[in-house]
Design a protein that fits this description.
mainly beta, 12 strands, single chain, Methylamine Dehydrogenase, Chain H, globular, four-stranded antiparallel β-sheet
């Protein structure tokens, strides 16, 4: 893998196992075709700092990236490199954390991002991400947030 400059920080497989996304110190994301070992899309550029977390949506059509630049980005991964249009397009840039993001996961139609600001934010996976209300979550900006209680910050648990 010679597409990254510096360290590769994280990897994520698409649900069908056909794609592998990598990210690293160069703030770029590369989506690979697992079978051929070739890139499946043009490298995804837009973050301004290291990308620490990657996750595909359950249908594999969207890739989320969590960066030290305090943003969560959603990317279109539904179109292969040779098709051109739509491939690697930034669908949304989600802001609300006040420190760098460390990781992202998708679960039951929502994205969850964790950051160095001591919060986990839950984002709607609808076409226009909106706040998602839930037990213990409080609206903040364009996401919901649940500041980790002090005893939980050490263990990384944010639920009660």
């Amino acid at each position: 893998m010679e597409w990254h400059k510096g360290s590769v920080q994280t990897v994520a497989f698409s649900p069908d196992g056909e794609l592998l996304a990598t990210s690293g110190d160069d703030a770029r994301i590369v989506v690979w075709d697992v079978e051929s070992g070739e890139i499946a899309q043009q490298p995804l550029a837009g973050h301004q700092n290291i990308v620490f977390g990657l996750a595909f949506s359950a249908d594999g059509r969207t890739l989320a990236s969590a960066s030290r630049d305090n943003t969560l980005r959603l990317w279109d991964t539904s179109t292969p490199l040779n098709a051109g249009v739509g491939s690697g397009v930034t669908l949304r840039v989600l802001q609300g954390h006040t420190a760098g993001l460390l990781d992202v996961v998708e679960r039951d139609g929502a994205w969850y991002s964790a950051a160095n600001d001591g919060t986990v934010r839950r984002w709607s996976a609808s076409p226009l991400p909106e706040p998602v209300e839930g037990r213990g979550l409080h609206s903040s900006g364009n996401s919901t947030t649940n500041p980790l209680p002090p005893p939980c910050r050490r263990t990384g648990r944010w639920w009660q």
